[in-house]
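Homework help board

Subject: predicted structure for assignment chain

Our instructor gave us this sequence and asked us to write out the predicted structure in token form, then describe one feature. I got the tokens but I'm not sure how to describe them. Can anyone check?
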Amino acid sequence: MPEFKLPAIGEGVVEGEIVRWLKKPGERVAANEPLVEVMTDKATVEIPSPQDAVIESITCDEGAIAAVGSVIAIFGVGVGVGVGVGGVAAAAAPAPAAAPGNGAPAKVLATPAARALARESGIDLAVVPGDRGRITKAHVEQARTAYSGPSPSRVPTETALPAVSGTLSTPPAERPSHKSTEIPRVSEPARPARPLRSGEPAADEYLPFRGMRRKIAEGLSRSYNTAVHYTYVEQVDVSKLVAVREQAKRAAAAEGVQLSYLPFIVKAVIRGLRKFPIVNAELDEAAARIVLKGRYSIGIATATEQGLLVPVIHDADRMSLLDVATEITRVSEAARIGKATREELTGSTFTISSLGSIGGVLATPILNYPEVGILGVHAIRRVPVVDENDNIVIGYMMNLSVTLDHRVVDGFEGANFLQEVRRHLEDPTLLLLSGI
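My token output:
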């Protein structure tokens, strides 16, 4: 029988995890129709069928790790001729991707969060337009708005998911106040409410530990068990930054750019990394050397329905402030909807993570290994401060925490790095002088 082998997914990729089969044995698949979702590194890709065929059997179950070139499915005999991708016979004649031959409607492909929200909202997923045949929570939210219009009584619950770097973070967006760093939240995937019962307790719920969640766990374990973590915290008076950003965001809006505080923080971090290059480094234990990175590519931890990803702003030092803001929006959105490429999710030299609107006083983020530093950004709050004339005035304060690998970065260097970041955020004119 024709074999369907896992094709090469990307340069240097030797294996992938089978996240989800989009077809079952006995079902027909059309040429170029998505057949299976495979995860490699932190990117999930859909592998299409190279031909029209009927699925005879699946030889690699969901959650299993398959090597590139290994057989993961068998196509039925006599469905086509010739050789296709991965050694599979090419179809002789196209056949529609239909439901099983019992007359039942085709299964709607939707994420668990999308299904839960659809049930809650009373929306039939069959009428919701998706993307490449798959429906996400965002598609359901759009359909709900289209059917009923915006409802002030239905405000999504906002929460954060654990990142590969062990932090809480969100993609960028505008907020109406200064209670946070204006980095947006991704709504928690909706789940059915558990009914209260008297007497007998509710049954346990079991969630599969695979895909993105397993990748996150592997990254956390490797980082925690390899690097020697320590965290340094500082308060930052961002009163001047608040005023500068308030003026700048109007000019940015005229250019079609949504300007949060995060681009300013990225630029301040780059100034700190330039002055203390040991923080923009990697420990190569095999070669017994520390590699000081010559580029400044900043990872932005971003909450998604699949888990926390870290899309990368490559060569952020070569971009203007508005370019950084635009790129943050682009790659964060790509990660959120599951379309970020492998290149957009790898290659960072330092990571920034923000607790966003939920604020918090302090967090100790886990390193995005093999990086040696990660910055935790906390809420901007209005508080009484003492000015240079010893007067008590209302100002804006924010806590920053930096976690570092003590094998590479000493406490003195780490503290001075964060002080350099603080200096540029407390006096944004320094950023202007350095060419933001």
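Reply (TA_rk): Your tokens look well-formed. For the description, you could write something like this. The radius of gyration is 25 Å. That's the kind of observation they're looking for.
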